[in-house]
Design brief:
This protein has one domain. The chain is elongated, with a radius of gyration of 45 Å. It contains 11 helices and no strands. By secondary structure, it is mainly α.
């Protein structure tokens, strides 16, 4: 306890002695305010800070609104314009193809219903006794219905809706193929004016081969002779005739001989076969197109003689009407016109391959030809073969000709 009291007394004494310290102040003279000019570093820093928001805003504006545009060549821009036209034609042919397919279904069902209704009325009139108003009404109604069916059949057989539908399908497929070719040309880069000209010629050739309107421009549905479809532009001008020299650009003498043999096989086997099938389909379609309206016309005339006391007068409209319905169903339900158009397009496909090989081999300047290895690969794919299989076909054709055996027993294409 005594120690605690001693410590407290000492602390109080020390505090009292500290208060006795003499307070002295040193008064310095007041210096004048001198403003020094800012240094160059400070000035630049201040300007950067002051203008930083403006610079950032300007940079953001340039990034958002003033991005540099990629420059395209004039040929590229023109190819894009052709591509837009091709896409529009694809859409048009698709829509019109669906419309004409509906025509085929609706006209077929309507004509068959009219024909069968008229045949039924002829049968009812044949068993109706007497010569009163009911018999006359049945006879006139039957004759009118048969006449209407005859007129509709003449129109339907003239335009061949199933064949029109197949034309639009083929046009859509070929325009899509052209679309892919143009896109590939643009993707490779640096298209030339020749590429633009070639694309436009292909578009116009397709427009001519597969016209959209019915009046005036419609293709002849019953030509005198089967002709393959032609949807590619014809080459004008003569090829060069200078000597080739050493083979290059992927071409060799063996490859040229291979392409010539493939050309012969396509021409003598595939082309002739599809020409034969196309002529058969054309003859069948012509016969059915004449038979249908002829039978309904006979039925219309025969129905007016019902009730004259002759059993033959009642038999004719019944048989003719029934046969007309069967013929119409076989022609348009079986789409014989579509089959003919399919053979016509297939014949055109082989004709295009022949033209492609012939025009390529006739070009003596190898630098202007398509690369030989690429051309061989494309030809093999178009025929549904591998490259080795295509070479086997060419060697087989050459051996058949050298041995004098005759034509090769194999078709070039494995697709059609």
């Amino acid at each position: 306890m005594a120690s605690i009291l001693q410590t407290t007394v000492l602390t109080c004494c020390s505090l009292t002695s500290s208060k006795r310290v003499i307070n002295a102040a040193i008064h310095l003279p007041q210096l004048p305010n001198i403003s020094l000019p800012p240094t160059k570093i400070q000035t630049n820093r201040k300007q950067q800070l002051d203008h930083q928001p403006l610079i950032l805003e300007k940079n953001n504006s340039q990034i958002l609104h003033d991005e540099p545009k990629q420059q395209y060549s004039n040929s590229t821009v023109q190819l894009y314009a052709v591509l837009e036209a091709v896409l529009d034609r694809v859409e048009m042919h698709q829509n019109i193809g669906e419309q004409r397919n509906n025509w085929n279904t609706l006209l077929l069902n309507s004509i068959n219903m009219i024909t069968l209704t008229a045949t039924t009325m002829s049968g009812v009139a044949a068993v109706t006794s007497g010569e009163g108003a009911p018999l006359l009404a049945l006879k006139l109604s039957s004759a009118l219905l048969f006449s209407a069916a005859t007129g509709l059949l003449l129109i339907m057989n003239k335009i061949q809706p199933s064949q029109l539908t197949e034309e639009q399908r083929n046009a859509t497929r070929l325009f899509k193929q052209l679309q892919t070719q143009i896109q590939t040309t643009i993707a490779i880069g640096n298209p030339s004016e020749e590429d633009v000209k070639s694309a436009m010629e292909k578009v116009l050739a397709l427009d001519k081969a597969y016209p959209l309107p019915l009046l005036g421009a419609m293709l002849e549905k019953f030509p005198a002779k089967f002709e393959p479809a032609t949807w590619w532009p014809t080459k004008k001008g003569k090829t060069q005739s200078k000597k080739m020299g050493k083979m290059k650009n992927g071409w060799s003498e063996e490859l040229e001989m291979e392409m010539r043999e493939v050309f012969e096989v396509i021409k003598r086997k595939d082309g002739e076969e599809y020409e034969r099938l196309g002529n058969i389909a054309l003859k069948i379609n012509k016969s059915l197109a004449v038979a249908g309206p002829l039978l309904t016309g006979i039925a219309a005339i025969g129905s007016t003689f019902i009730g004259n006391g002759s059993s033959l007068a009642a038999f004719v409209p019944l048989m003719a009407g029934s046969l007309a319905a069967a013929v119409n169903t076989f022609e348009h339900g079986g789409q014989v016109g579509m089959v003919f158009e399919m053979y016509r397009t297939s014949g055109g496909f082989f004709k295009l391959l022949e033209t492609s090989i012939e025009s390529t081999l006739s070009e003596k300047d190898l630098a202007k030809r398509e690369n030989g290895e690429l051309f061989e690969m494309k030809m093999a794919l178009k025929l549904g073969r591998s490259i080795s299989n295509l070479r086997e076909l060419a060697s087989k054709s050459a051996s058949y000709r050298m041995e004098g055996v005759g034509e090769i027993d194999e078709f070039a294409s494995k697709i059609f």
